[in-house]
Write a structure and sequence with these properties.
80% of the residues lie in helices and 0% in strands. The chain is mainly alpha-helical. The chain has a single domain, classed as Growth Hormone, Chain: A (Up-down Bundle).
């Protein structure tokens, strides 16, 4: 007779695979918002149509992103602490997801000259999206073991970029028919449909708690307690500071890639679609490959590799952005191509490089954060992780938009991104990749 317990490990492994799949599917869902609204369609639509193609459109867009990120940064640690206390991540994730979905639908009503309302609705949608990520990320330590954090985090980002490809394919008929506004509620529908499985099948370890204070007071108290004892989490604090700087560069690229290609390089909508297809495709491969690398050599070393690639990418983007520049002329002569053609091909190559590390940098950072975070405060600390990530997205886009506005040329603004990666890499060198954190303070 077979021992029934012999099948138990297989069953557990199968359950873990299903949990990972359902969790990663949500990444596919909410990426339909980020690719359509943040990175590509609405970002370009806002500057070219809503802001009338004026250079100040970059500055308006940077203000909108900065405000939404500031609000998210302020509320994320409190929300995370509340969710830890009540262990109700899923209901918070549902609330903010619905906020994002509804606001994205309302973008349909934004037209030429509606700068104020276009920014307000975008800010609301982005708060819903960014705040929801706090609770989504905090599920990672619950669905797999520490040795698999890197690859599972990579699976999530890979699924997200696959969602970008699916979304781009589905909205292409809208773009071709010049029905840009109709694409916004359609992308919200994609978000809704693919988000449902997480709420149906992924269990949240909720518990009833007796409380004498409101959840807001509890959240603020726990956050204040964590801040006052931050000296006990020195390694984690150094990592968060490094993360603040280098993800500043990543966020700025995400927010302005579409605008830059459209305004400075004069990409057509068709060329923009090709560019983002390149970015999303290589991002899938990058997230998967670097996820495996992170589990092999460690997340810190992996992040260092991605940051070096980022630095080369930004420098190459700047060097090849001048049509009559010596480097572009040299490449045009080398490959026997027109300057305009070589400039476009070079930016496609920039998209390939950026895509290969865009998801990888973020997924590996999430993996390292999971290793350094006290398990009983995972959502609260992921709230701080989100706070550093979102607050970093305040400064970078704002500086990029301001430099672009005062110089009248986005090419000079590119160089501001390079400094964030350099500073982040320097601080990261002091972080110790020491495995799963223990609880040091209460």
């Amino acid at each position: 007779m077979k021992n029934p317990s012999q099948k138990l490990p297989t069953k557990i492994k199968e359950n873990e695979k299903f949990r990972v799949f359902v969790w990663a599917l949500f990444d596919l869902a909410h990426t339909s918002y980020s690719i359509v609204v943040i990175t590509f369609l609405y970002a370009v639509y806002f500057k070219q149509v809503v802001a009338g193609g004026e250079a100040i459109g970059d500055f308006y867009w940077s203000i909108g992103t900065s405000i939404s990120m500031l609000i998210t940064a302020l509320i994320s640690p409190v929300l995370g602490a509340i969710a830890d206390y009540s262990t109700g991540k899923k209901r918070f994730l549902l609330f903010f997801s619905l906020v994002c979905i509804i606001a994205t639908c309302l973008l349909y009503f934004i037209g030429r000259g509606d700068i104020f309302f276009g920014l307000v609705i975008f800010i609301i949608a982005n708060i819903g999206y960014q705040a929801g990520v706090v609770f989504y990320d905090a599920f990672l330590p619950e669905i797999t073991t520490p040795k698999n954090y890197g690859r599972v985090s990579g699976y999530g980002f890979a699924m997200g970029y696959l969602g970008s490809l699916i979304t781009l394919a589905l909205i292409y008929p809208f773009i071709k028919a010049q029905m840009i506004r109709e694409a916004f509620p359609f992308s919200a529908g994609i978000f809704l449909v693919f988000a449902v499985p997480l709420f149906l099948f992924l269990k949240d370890s909720r518990k009833k708690v007796e409380r004498t204070k409101s959840f807001i007071n509890i959240g603020l108290t726990r956050v204040f307690n964590t801040i006052t004892h931050l000296k006990n989490y020195k390694n984690l604090s150094i990592f968060l500071l490094a993360f603040f700087f280098y993800v500043e560069g990543v966020n700025t690229v995400i927010f302005f890639a579409g605008n830059y290609a459209s305004s400075t390089l004069h990409f057509t909508m068709g060329q923009l679609i090709v560019f983002f297809l390149i970015v999303q495709t290589t991002a899938i491969l990058g997230a998967l490959i670097f996820g495996v690398i992170a589990d092999s050599i460690g997340p810190k070393k992996t992040i260092v590799i991605t940051l070096l690639i980022w630095m080369f990418t930004i420098f190459f983007a700047y060097a090849t952005s001048f049509k009559e520049g010596a480097f572009v002329q040299y490449l045009a002569h080398l490959f026997q191509m027109d300057n305009s053609d070589i400039l476009i091909k070079c930016f496609y190559f920039v998209g390939l490089l950026a895509g290969s590390v865009m998801g990888a940098t973020q997924s590996t950072s999430r993996s390292l954060m999971s290793r350094l975070t006290p398990l009983d405060r995972k959502t609260e600390f992921f709230g701080f992780y989100s706070m550093f990530g979102k607050s970093s997205a305040i400064v970078g886009p704002l500086i990029f938009g301001y430099v672009s506005f005062i110089s009248g040329d986005q090419r000079f603004a590119i160089l501001t991104i390079l400094f964030f990666f350099i500073i982040g890499l320097g601080i990261l060198s002091f972080v110790k990749d020491e495995g799963v954190a223990k609880v040091h303070a209460e």
